[in-house]
Automatic annotation (TrEMBL):
InterPro entries: CO_DH_gsu, START-like_dom_sf. Residues 210-222 have a biased composition (Basic and acidic residues). The lineage of its organism: Bacteria, Bacillati, Actinomycetota, Actinomycetes, Geodermatophilales. Residues 207-239 are annotated as: Disordered. Keywords: Membrane, Transmembrane, Transmembrane helix. The chain crosses the membrane at residues 255-273. This is Carbon monoxide dehydrogenase subunit G. It comes from Klenkia taihuensis. The keyword Membrane applies. It holds the Pfam family COXG. Residues 223-238 have a biased composition (Low complexity).
Length: 278
């Protein structure tokens, strides 16, 4: 069956394109899903589903089979099976991104094939479930994208001390240089005056070099410290998708008639048994 769904992402289309291709970033936003590995365009994962008292875990592999950055179109082929052998699932998912002002609309076309217990849901129920799950995904993704960026890093105590020390060194070097220059200008041909001029000249050069080093140290201290990239937090085990809960009224309507027939049959059997006992 083919399912069509749409949702909005609160970022421009170019940014949305980059985000939606980052599987490790968006996987935690998908209800019931857990990402196990990513290698290039291939990734593996699991989806947990609850159908009444039955718990199913679909494990499988998916791959990007098309990435058209110019058209903002991506196609994913995904295949998996229930770990207990209760069914299989295969899907080709086409996502088309379209700009809507400062936001992006994502149109999703899913060519879905399901076997096993979940296949008892008809197209109407599956569409309803798909819309609700994508709605939850879009809400989580929007919340993630809406988080404010970390504020600029405040200068550390160490960098502040280094900067002040560099300022002091530059000031001291400048003062020494001025004194040395005044000494270097002393007149006279006496040995003491000559020695003073040589010493002053050497001191001026040393003071200039010290001032240069102090200035470099000041610039280095003023540089912002690169933030250490945050380690990726391992994804917590996801809660299973409760299909009956998500489907809500649609599922009840779908199964109301069979349930009524079953209850009627039970009542009829009970009535016959009671009459025979009499």
């Amino acid at each position: 069956m083919q399912l069509e769904n749409s949702f909005l992402v609160p970022v421009p289309v170019d940014d949305a394109w980059k985000v939606l291709l980052d599987i490790e970033r968006i996987a935690p936003c998908m209800p019931g899903a857990a990402l196990d590995s990513v290698e290039g365009d291939d990734f593996t994962g699991r989806v947990k589903v609850k159908l009444g008292p039955i718990n199913l875990t679909y494990a499988g592999k998916a791959s990007f089979i098309e990435k058209d950055e110019a058209a903002h179109k991506a196609v994913i082929d995904a295949r998996g099976k229930d770990q207990r052998g209760n069914g299989t699932a295969a899907a080709v998912v086409t996502a088309q991104l379209k700009s809507e002002g400062d936001s992006t609309r994502v149109d999703v076309l899913t060519d879905l094939n399901i076997t096993g217990r979940p296949a008892q849901f008809g197209r109407g129920v599956m569409t309803d479930v798909g819309n609700k799950l994508l709605g939850q995904f879009a809400d989580k993704l929007a919340a993630q994208l809406g988080e404010t960026e970390a504020p600029a890093q405040e200068p550390t105590v160490e960098s502040t001390v280094k900067e002040k020390a560099a300022d002091a060194a530059a000031t001291a070097a400048g003062a020494v240089g001025e004194v040395a220059e005044s000494v270097a200008g002393v007149d006279g041909d006496t040995p003491i005056a000559e020695a003073a001029r040589k010493a002053a000249s050497t001191t001026v050069q040393a003071a200039d070099a010290a001032a240069d080093r102090a200035e470099e140290a000041k610039k280095e201290a003023a540089k912002p410290v690169a933030a250490t990239p945050a380690a990726r937090t391992p994804q917590a085990e996801p809660e299973p998708i409760d299909l009956l809960d998500v489907a809500g009224g649609a599922a009840f309507t779908r199964f109301a008639k069979p349930a009524a027939i079953g209850v009627g049959a039970l009542l009829l059997v009970a009535l016959v048994v009671r009459r025979r006992r009499r």
